[in-house]
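Database export, one record per block. Field names are fixed; values are copied verbatim from the stored entry.
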Amino acid sequence: MLSDLLQRNRDWAEGRSAAEPEFFARLAVQQVPEFFWIGCSDSRISANVVAGLDPGEVFVHRNVANVVHSSDLNLLSALEFAVDALNVREIVVCGHHGCGGVKAATEEIAHGLADHWLEPIRRLGRAYALDLARLDSAEARRDKLAELNVVEGVRRVAETPILQAAWKRGEDVRVHGLIYGLKDGRLRDLQCSVARPRNVTEAET
C-alpha cells in the first residue's frame, strides 16, 4: 500500500539524518556521480544496492533488458547529460542472468510492443545461434545471450556521437560491461571494456 511506502520513506529519511546529519543537505547542493549505469528495469536489481553505492554516486538509466537502441532518445539524453554535464567518466552497461526480457526475446509468442524493443536481442540470438546451441540448457543459452547483449550494448555506447565527441576532446571516458547473478548477488566483469582509442586526435582549440 502507498501508506506503507511513505512510512518506509519516513523511517529511512529519519535513519539517514540520525546517522549523518548533513546527508540530505549535501545531496541537495549537487550530484557528482562517478558512474553512469545502463541497467535492466527488473525490480530485483537496483544499481545503488548491488554496487554498494550511496545516492548521488551513480546516475542511472534503466529499460527492459538493458538494450542500447541507437534511436532511444531517453537513453541518449541521459548519456549526454552524464558525460557532458556531470563529467562522468565511467559508464557501465549491466545485464543480469535470469532476465525476463531476454527470455521473451527467445520465445515464439507475441509480447506486444516488447517484441519491437527486444529485436536487437533476437538479432544477436540469430547471429550466435551455433555458439548458443552448444550450451546444454535453455537457461544457460538465455544467460549467455544476456551477456552477449551487454557486450553489444558496450559497443553501441562507444559508437554514439556523444562518446566519439568526448574522446575527440581528449576526455578519458570508459565503457564497461557487467553481468549480475541473481542467484549469488555478484557482479562480474565481462572483459569487454572500451576506452578512448589511441588514434582519436583531440580537436584543435
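Remark 1: The chain is about 50% helix and 15% strand.
Remark 2: The chain has two domains: 1-30, 31-189.
End of record.
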